What does this fold into?
Amino acid sequence: VKAGDTVLLLGTGGVSVFALQFCKLMGVKAICTSSSEEKIDRLKAMGADEVINYRTHPEWQDKVLELTGGKGVDHTVEVGGAGTLERSIAATRVAGSIGLIGVLTGGEINPVNIMRKSIRLQGIYVGSRRVFEDMNAAISQHGLKPVISDTFAFEDARDAFHAMRAAGHFGKLVVKA
Ligand SMILES: NC(=O)c1ccc[n+]([C@@H]2O[C@H](COP(=O)([O-])OP(=O)(O)OC[C@H]3O[C@@H](n4cnc5c(N)ncnc54)[C@H](OP(=O)(O)O)[C@@H]3O)[C@@H](O)[C@H]2O)c1
It folds into this structure.
């Protein structure tokens, strides 16, 4: 991404909230979604440019298109998987890209619009050491503080998994080694 691009982020989990922080650091416009009004307020406080409630707007891809003048976003960070991918494809511009990071939901995908819109769909399963070092350099340079929702002792790791399933968190859940 480069400054001035527009990125779509789904939900307020660890991946998407970190991605929002990186968007703000890079001068990138972020359009976010969430199912919770309380979390929407937190996204706005963090600098999210536009936020859509995907519960009250189940056709949220139309809203994204409206917010981008019908064009669609340059990049999408996909964490929903099959349940959201078709909408993300619809919300991404022609020749834009989608980073497929997670698969939180099931369903089926019709790949036709990936072809029609010449979208680049990139699966990402953990980056390289060099990318990790570059990321850490950027975090240090900008003094970026990760958004940590809750921290659990190692012995309480079970509670961390329950918290993740309950999905009440905003940002990262941490288990201390
Ligand atoms: N490839 C990798 O390297 C990598 C790294 C980390 C994680 N992952 C994967 O990426 C995914 C996300 O990880 P995470 O740690 O961010 O998860 P998480 O913290 O559990 O994120 C949960 C949040 O995602 C949002 N969400 C759930 N279903 C959604 C839907 N249908 N549409 C839009 N948003 C939805 C909800 O946000 P709201 O409450 O705001 O609605 C929910 O609170 C997981 O599948 C995880 O396994 C992959």
